[in-house]
Design a protein that fits this description.
This protein is α+β, with helices and mostly antiparallel strands. The protein has a single domain (3-137), classed as Aspartate Aminotransferase, domain 1 (Alpha-Beta Complex). Helices cover 27% and strands 20% of the residues. The chain is built from three helices and six strands; from the N terminus they run αββββαββα. The chain has a six-stranded antiparallel beta sheet, with helices on one face. It is globular. It starts with a helix and ends with a helix. This is DUF6194 domain-containing protein. Residues 1-135 form the DUF6194 domain. It comes from Pseudalgibacter alginicilyticus.
Amino acid sequence: MKIEEIKNYLLQNFDNLQLAEAENDLFFMHKKNDKLPFATLITKDNEYDAVSNLNREGFFRLNFPVDKDTFESLFKELPTGKKLEAFMHIGIDFTKEDTLMPHPTYGSMNWVCIVNPSRKTFETLIVKHLKQSYQKIN
């Protein structure tokens, strides 16, 4: 899928989201929480997070939180980390496309990520988790 398609899906299917943009990265903020985004679309590496190698042409990463039980069921084989970057250095290939993974920096806060999701993965897996996450905050 393309970034524009995911952006449009989020804005058309989830009420009360406001879009904030910073240096081509997109932050979908819920009106009830202007501190933490509901989801982000990140288009490039930065000094804190370069493990997905997003500086490649056409690459982006969708990030969003899930509840603790969902996170644990998705990644039960991984060690539990309690600090920022807990998943960054345990051998996960964060450059892999179309694969749901713990977020490299915020996985310990039950955030997940996916680089360049396919339409099939987005529609059959990601949408379900986005809807569950949205229900928790709405």
